[in-house]
Amino acid sequence: MPLPGKTYYWAVRGTDSSGQVVWSDPRSFSLPGQESASPVNEGLKALVYPNPSWKGDDIHISIHPASAGEATISLFRISGDLLYREKIECASDRVTVLTLPGMDLAPGIYIAEISSGGDRQVKKLIIL
């Protein structure tokens, strides 16, 4: 059940006329509610989708940093081996989406680490 005052992110998956899977830009929503006693986290927000994903599917990483600047995206095997790393420039007032096309990852669990400024998000990615 969605919690009042929390922000949720979503995207829509569809198929184009040639049968290719396509994704909408990520969107967010918040439910109105009581303000919590703790401060709202205005730091880095990140989303990895689709998750779980099928072997060979594109992986999308949506990044919304607290401030403009460089963001680093790293993808690791569960064992800690680095598979991929990229640095991209992000604006603070918009969501940036990085697409990793058809990485052909073996089924299993992977870790995506997204960092920007002093903020860091770690996300689990499941490949079926």
How would the blueprint of this fold be written?
Blueprint: E1 7-10, E2 13-15, E3 21-23, E4 27-30, E5 45-49, E6 59-64, E7 69-77, E8 82-90, E9 96-100, E10 108-116, E11 119-127
Antiparallel strand pairs: 1-4, 2-3, 5-6, 6-9, 7-8, 7-10, 10-11
Structural account:
The chain has strands spanning 7-10, 13-15, 21-23, 27-30, 45-49, 59-64, 69-77, 82-90, 96-100, 108-116, 119-127. With 128 residues, the chain is mainly beta. The chain is globular, with a radius of gyration of 16 Å. The two termini are 26 Å apart. The strands form four sheets. A four-stranded antiparallel sheet has the order 8-7-10-11, with no helix packed on it. It has a three-stranded antiparallel sheet with strand order 5-6-9, with no helix packed on it. β10 (108-116) and β11 form a beta hairpin. It has a domain at 42-127: Sandwich (Immunoglobulin-like). The mean pLDDT is 84. Helices cover 0% and strands 52% of the residues.
